[in-house]
Amino acid sequence: MKQLGRSIFLLLISVLSLSAQDPKPDPKAATTAAMVEECKCTIIPFKPEVPCFNYCATSLVARATLEELLVAFDLEEASARRIVAWEDRNEATSLEDYVKAHQITEAEAQGIRKRINSLDKAQLEYFRKPRWERVLIMTEQRKQLFVYE
């Protein structure tokens, strides 16, 4: 009985020591940290174009509300709703990921690219605000903030 207790104790120590080791590094987290450092998502156009446009654009789209997708990015309602409901939207690394996942069409991806490249400083600052603040602004100033010719 003592031998069994000792075996269980040693097994438990082994399991605990394995779980206490550093987990494998997440390559996506390292890439994201590098992108935050390298990319200036506060200045349009995002530079360097590759890979910063993908990083900054997908960050904007992933954080966007349904209304922002409709108004700021001029998406069809069905596409905007698919994006909002898509569980992996925070995992996308390019607009092409949205196309491949059938969330938007290639034409919509090009439209988003065009809209993002035409954002002015005030619009870009708007997207940097917390969601609750953006919702208030969008409610009050929707027509003044995102007017496209």
Number of helices: 9
Mean pLDDT reading: 78
* Main sheet specs: none
How much helix is in the residues?
A: 55-70%
SS elements, strand count: 0
What is the terminal-to-terminal distance? Answer: 83 Å
* Computed structural class: mainly alpha
Please outline the helices and strands.
Blueprint: H1 2-20, H2 27-38, H3 49-63, H4 66-71, H5 77-85, H6 95-100, H7 106-117, H8 121-128, H9 131-145
Helix pairs in contact: 8-9
Which features would summarize this protein structure in a list?
mainly alpha, globular, 149 residues
Question: What do you see in this structure?
Answer:
The protein is mostly helical. α8 packs antiparallel against α9.
Structure, briefly:
This protein is 68% helix and 0% strand.
